Amino acid sequence: MNAPAATITLNLRIWRQATPDAAGAFAAYRLEQVSTDLSLLEALDHLNGQLIAAGKRPVGFEHDCREGICGSCGFLVNGQAHGPQAATTVCQLYLRQFEDGATLVLEPFRARAFPLLQDLSVDRSAFDRLLMAGGYCSVNTGSAPAANAILIGRDQATSAFDTASCIGCGACVASCRNASASLFVAAKLAHLGQLPQGQPERARRNEALQQQMATEGFGSCSNQLECEAVCPKQISADWISWMRREGWR
Amino acid sequence: MMTTTRLDPCLPAGPLDSAWQRTCEGLPLISPANKRRLRVLVVGTGLAGSSAAATLAEQGYRVQVLTYHDSPRRAHSVAAQGGINAARNYAGDGDSVERLFRDTVRGGDFRAREAGCHRLAEISGAIIDQCVAQGVPFAREYGGLLAQRNFGGALVSRTFYARGQTGQQLLYGAVQALLRQVEAGRVELFTRREMLELITVDGVARGVVCRHRLSGELETFLADAVVLATGGYANVFHLSTNAVQSNASAIWRAHCRGALFANPCFTQIHPTCIPSGDGDQSKLTLMSESLRNDGRLWLPLQPGDQRDPKTIPEAERDYFLERQYPTYGNMVPRDVASRRARELCLAGHGVGPGGRSVYLDLAEAIARDGQEAIESRYGNLLEMYARISGEDPTSTPMRIYPAPHYTMGGLWVDYHLMSTIAGLFVLGEANFSEHGANRLGASALMQGLADGYFIAPATITAWLAGQPLPAVNANHPACREARAAAAARIAALLVPAGTGTASPGTVAGGAGRRPVEAYHRELGQLMIEACGISRQGERLQRALLELADMRGRCDAELRVSDHGTPNNPELEKALRLQDFLGLAELMLRDALAREESCGAHFREEHQSADGEARRDDEHFAHIAAWEHRPGAEPVRHSEPLTYTAIPFSQRNYR
Q1: d(Cα A232, Cα A175) in Å, to the nearest integer?
Q2: Among A121, A155, B42, B399, which is least packed, fewest CB within 10 Å?
Q3: pLDDT for B2
Q4: SS3 for B65?
Q5: Distance of alpha carbon A188 from its chain centroid, rounded?
Q6: CA atoms of B189 and B222, how far apart (whole Å)
Q7: Which of A35, A64, A68 is closest, CB to CB, to B278?
C-alpha cells in the first residue's frame, strides 16, 4: 500500500499566445519526473512554477474548483477536449493516464463563438447569453407554490437531473466540426422541458435559444456525436434529437 | 484588550416564534417608482450573491453584479455536494422548525445567536419551494414526492438533495434567475472583476474598486448599498476543499476599512476528504458527508498495521466513531469526527502514505443494499474518488482525512445582515452568522439562500428607505483615495520581467522570482499546524512570531514579474496572499484569546478527562468581533449571547 508514488516524464507542446491579437505558436516544454498522482493542471502549475522562477510568463489556463464541477477548465489534449479519459474534465485527468515519455499537445478550444484570450484560455460568455435568452423558469422569489404540491416521478426527475448536470465547459462546442452549441442548448431545454415547472415557457424557450445560438455564431449540428463523446457529464446526444422534435410540437 | 462595546445586533423583541415575520411586517417599504432610482451593488455570484441580486432586481432596484469568474455559474457554491436542510417533516420522523432551530444552536455549540438560528429554521421551507419552482431537480421518491436523507449532527432526515451535486443545481437555479434579470435589463453583470477596495463616504459603504482581470484596469462601481457575498476564507490554509481561486480579499479589505471581523478562528475541518499526497497537490477534494450514512469509519486496532485493508479481519478493526459515540455513531458532527480521526492517526493507527488517512468503508452497505443502490446514491462521488485516487471505492475502502472546508467566522453583521459599516451588507459564508462554532452539514446552502432570497432583500429595502444618501461620483475624494490605494499596492508588487537579479525573492542565478504559490504553501503549513483541528496556547504564540517573520519576508521579497500583458494571474495571487497573511494573524489572535474549547475550536488546555471539548459559558458565551487598527494591534470587542429558549447544555453525541 505504501509504495512510493510513480513518476513520469512528459513532453508538452503548448499553444502560447500572449494576447487575443498576437500571433500564436506551439512551444515545447519537458517535465521531468513528476508524480503520476498529479492532475494535468497540477503538472501545468509545476511547469508555471519553473517558468516564473526563470523570469518567463507562465502558461495561461482557466481553472478553479479542480474537482470537475465548476466548468472553468478545458482545453484540447492531443486533439481531444479534456483529453483521453471519458467523463472527465481536464482538472480530473491524472498523469497516471499517460505513458512515461508521452508527448501531449495542449491547445485551446477553437470556435468562432469562443474568442481566444490567452494561451489555453477562451471566452465562453456566449453560453451565459444563451441562458439569458430564456434558460430559466420565470418565477419571482416568494411566489412559489408548496414544493410537494406538484408530483414529479422519480425517473422523470432523474432524467431532468442528468441534463441539468451540464457544467458549461464548452467541450461539446470545441469538439464539433461546426462548433455547434446544440448539446449545451438541448441539455438546458431538456432539463426544464421535462419538468412541470418548465412547461409554460417551453415553446418560447426553444425558439429563443435556437435564435440566440445562431446570433452567437455557433454552427448547426452535424450529427457526428463528438459532443457526446467528450462531455464530462456524459450528456447524451439523443437530447439533440429531442430538441429537434421540440420545434414540431 | 477586550472591550464590551456598543455592538448592537438589533435583535427582535418578544418571543422567538415568528420574530422574523414580525420584524418584516415592521420594516419600511419603498414605492416601485423610487426603487428604480436606487442602485445596489452585489459582489459575488454564489448562492447568496446570485439569489440576492436576482431578488433585488425582481423587486425593482437597479442592480450591478460583480464576479471574478468568467461566468456567475462558476462560483464555488457549485461544488457543494450533499444537500440542503429544511424543516418540512416530509419524512414523518418528527422534524419541525423548533427541532431544526435547536439542532442549529446546539450544533454551533452555543456560539450563535438564538434569533438568527430560529429565523433560519423558519425560512428553510420556503427555500425548497422557491428552488423547486425554478426547476431544481431534487431527488424524488417513486410516488413523486421530494426525497430526504440524514446528515451529520441530526437524528431526523431533513436534507433535500440532487444526487451529490446539490450545490450545483441550487446555484444554477439562482444563476438562471439572475440571468433572467440581466436579460430584462434590471441587472448589469460584470464578469472577471476582482474587488480590491471598499469605498466609504462619511462612514457609509458606497461602492468598490475592482481590477478587471483581463485589461488590468482599475474600475469604480458606486451604489446606494453594497452587498458582499464573496464566500469563506478556508484557503488561508492553502490546501482546502475550496476552489483554488477562493479568497478573503473582499471581506478583508472591508475589515481594513472598518467592518468588524467576528470569530475568525471558527474554521471547520471536514472529516471526509481525499488526503494530500504530492507536494505539488493544489487542493483537497471533499467526499460528501452523506457517505457517512452508509460508510463506516475504521482504523486498524494495531498501530502501524499497513496490511491490505481487505485482509484485516473484523476483530482487528476499530470502528472508532461507533465505539466512542454509540448514539450518533458515524454521524457525529464534523468537528468531532475530524478530531477523533486526527488523534488516532497521531497515535500511529493512520493508514496510507505517511499514515495520514482513515478508512471509509462501504462494504457493509453494499452487502446490505447492493452495489447498484449505493452507486445510484453516490454515483458521481465514487467516480470522482476513483479518478483522483486511482482506486475503486466499491471494492477497496476509501481513504479519507480531514481538510479545511468552511469558515464559520466572517464579517460581523447584525440581525439585518448589515456590518459595522453602514450600508454594507454581508451574506452567506462571508458573514459570521448562524453556525456558531461549528456548522452542521447541509446548513451552508440553507443559510446562503435564506440570506439572499429572503433576508437581505427585506432588510436592504429598510436601510434604503431610511437613508437619503448624497450623490457620489467617481471623482469623489473617497473614490480617488480608494483607487490610489489599490494602484499603489499593485505598483509595489510589479517589477519588470527579467530584472529580478540580485534582489530578494529572486531565484538563485536567474532573472525570475519565487512563485507566490511557494509563500502561500508556507503560510498554509503554519496555519494548519497551529490553528487547525487542535490548538494550543504556546503554539499559537509561537505561530504569531513565525507569521510576523513571514510577513516581513513577504514585504521585502514578494514581487511579481510584469510581462507586459495586462492580465497577470501571478499578481492576483500575490494580492490575495497579502490579505490572507493579515487574516491569518487575526485568526491566531482570536484562537489565542478564546480560552475554551467550543465546536470546531479545540484548545488542548480545555478538555475533559475523556478528551471532549470543555466550553466556558461563564467567560466566553459571546461573539468576538475584531476591530482593525492600522499600524497597531487589533481590538477585541464582544457581543454577549443569551439563550431564552434553549438552556446551555454540553453537546453529547455519545
Answers
A1: 12
A2: A155
A3: 47
A4: strand
A5: 14
A6: 14
A7: A35
- Are A54 and A33 in contact, with CB atoms under 8 Å apart? no
Nearest-CB residue to B133 (from A65, A87, A197): A197
Q: Has residue B557 got a pLDDT over 70?
A: yes
CA angle (A53 as vertex; A52, A59 as ends), nearest 5: 25
pLDDT value at residue B11: 96
Residues of B in contact with A43 (CB under 8 A): 280
Q: Are B20 and B459 a contacting pair, CB within 8 Å? A: no
Contacts with A168 from chain B: Cβ below 8 Å: 71, 73
* Residues in chain A closer than 8 A to B79 (CB atoms): 65, 67, 69-70
- Taking CB atoms and an 8 Å limit, are B282 and A168 in contact across chains? no
Hey, what's the cell of B150?
440524514
Instruction: Using an 8 Å CB-CB cutoff, list chain A residues near B353.
Output: 2, 5
- Alpha-carbon gap: A139 to the closest alpha carbon of chain B (Å): 7
Instruction: List the single residue in A57, A142, A150 with the smallest CB-CB distance to B563.
Output: A57
How far, in Å, CA of B239 to CA of B232, rounded? 14
Round to whole Å and give the CA distance between B629 and B633: 6
Across the interface, whether the CB atoms of B565 and A117 are under 8 A apart is answered no
- Residues in chain A within 8 Å Cβ distance of B305: none
| Alpha-carbon span B53 to B45, nearest angstrom | 8
How many other C-beta atoms can be found within 10 angstroms of the C-beta atom of residue B16?
20
Mean pLDDT over B411-426 rounds to 98
All three cell numbers of B499, joined, read: 530584472
Q: Does the beta-carbon distance from B165 to A165 stay under 8 Å?
A: yes
Angle between helices B97-107 and B114-134 (to 10 degrees): 120
User: Which stretches of B482-569 are assigned E, i.e. beta strand?
Assistant: 494-496, 560-562
Q: In what order do the strands lie in the sheet with B410-411?
A: B2-4, B635-640, B622-627, B261-262, B410-411
Beta bridge partners, A211, equal: none
B135, A145: Cβ pair inside 8 Å?
no
> Distance (Å) from the C-alpha of residue A231 to the closest C-alpha of chain B?
14
Closest C-alpha among B416, B410, B415, B295 to residue B360:
B295
Separation in Å, CA of B364 to nearest CA in chain A: 22
Q: Which residues contact B584 (CB under 8 A, 6 or more apart)?
A: B236, B523, B526, B527, B531, B547
Distance CA B551, CA A70 (A): 32
Give the best residue of A70, A162, A167 to mutate against chain B (max B CB count within 10 A).
A70
Q: Which of A66, A89, A154 to probe the B interface (max B CBs under 10 A)?
A: A66
- Return the pLDDT at B378: 82
Cα(B405)–Cα(B232) distance, integer angstroms: 9
Does residue B558 register a pLDDT over 50?
A: yes
pLDDT higher than 50, residue B356: yes
| Per-residue model confidence as pLDDT tens digits over B423-455 | 999 999 999 989 999 999 899 999 999 999 999
Contacts of B95 (CB under 8 A, 6+ apart): B87, B88, B89, B156, B157, B158
Q: Say which of A85, A151, A168 has its CB closest to residue B143.
A: A151
Question: Following DSSP, what letter does each residue of B322-345 receive, concatenated?
Answer: HHH-TTTGGGS-HHHHHHHHHHHH
Distance CA(B178)–CA(B604), nearest Å, equals 46
The contacts of residue A8 (CB under 8 Å, 6+ apart) are A33, A34, A35, A36, A95, A98, A99, A100, A101, A102
User: Which amino acid, A158?
Assistant: T
In chain B, what residues touch A142 (CB-CB under 8 Å)?
55, 126, 130, 453-454
Provide the ipTM: 0.98
Q: Which residues of B touch A60 (CB under 8 A)?
A: 567, 569
Query: CA–CA separation, A9 vs A12, rounded Å?
Result: 10
User: Contact, B154 vs B77, CB < 8 A?
Assistant: no
* Distance, C-alpha B52 to centroid of its chain: 17
